[in-house]
Amino acid sequence: MSKHHIMQLIQSRIDTDGLRETGIAGVRLFRATTAVPCAPAVYESCVIAIVSGAKEAVLDGERYVYDSSRYMCCPTSMPVKAGTPTASPDNPLFGVIIALDQRVMSELALEMDHASNAIRADIGHASAQGIRLAQWDAAFTDALLRLLQLGDDETDIAVLGATRLRELYYAILKGEAGYFARRAFGPGNAIARSIAHVCSNLDAPVSIDDMAARAHMSRAAFHRKFKQATTMSPIQFVKSMRLNTAAMKIAGGITVNEAAMDVGYVSASQFSREFKRMYGQSPRQWSDTQVLAQGHDGRLTLP
Questions:
Q1: Domains in the chain: ranges and CATH
Q2: 225 HSE (CA, 13 A, CB side)
Q3: pTM of this prediction?
Q4: pLDDT for res 229
Q5: pLDDT digit string (tens) for 77-107?
Q6: How many Cα atoms sit within 13 Å of 3 on the Cβ side?
Q7: Which of these, 86, 80, 73, 59, lies nearest to 135 by C-alpha position?
Q8: d(CA 76, CA 102)
């Protein structure tokens, strides 16, 4: 019943395709009624919960489909392909995106780490990396409902918003993806810090040696731990993050050359070669495809 109430709350607040701010920092509602094939995107640190329809994400060849039975947890920024391949007017997609605040999640992870028996062991899918799907449980559902019930009341949001968001974070850390998320936000996670630094400095030169030094690890140890955490080698991750970010910028209307420079490419020809190798189209072909898609079917890119 609580999930049905969440559905009603979302439907009552968003009547067009796209994203809608809730007034609670980092919490947005979304709707989609148009099928969109998977396209380059960047998942920031977030949880995405679907109450109607389904979304799809692909990370390093691994396909994740999540709907009203499973929410998606992505503790650190990840370069993915994402889409809404089954959305239609008869099968609309409704959901909510919750950004995960690094400070609050880390505080909770530390508190739970100190509390006896607070974190259950990760059951199954121990090798899940980068993205994790988790079953909607009662604690997550109830916490999300209580958060969304704040509505648009500025006083309620100001007084209760942070507390109820913290309650939802706690439900995530205790849920099926809890151990996975706790590893990302727990103390001493040098890989998560390395990812955050790379994502904040995509236009700067980067090398494995630099990344390993920031993590206070040997090159070999850093490479191994990075791949365990993300499924990709450090250099593959950086390249995917740069190209996905550039593709999103191009889809957003900036020029190919501007997008290339924004993500650290000094050679337009190298950017074009690597872009085509990854996506099967040149950047200009990709740009033309996006213009046609957005102009003819109202295509909207959702996280």
A1: 2-185 (2.60.120.10), 195-296 (1.10.10.60)
A2: 21
A3: 0.86
A4: 84
A5: 999 999 998 999 999 999 999 999 988 998 8
A6: 18
A7: 73
A8: 9
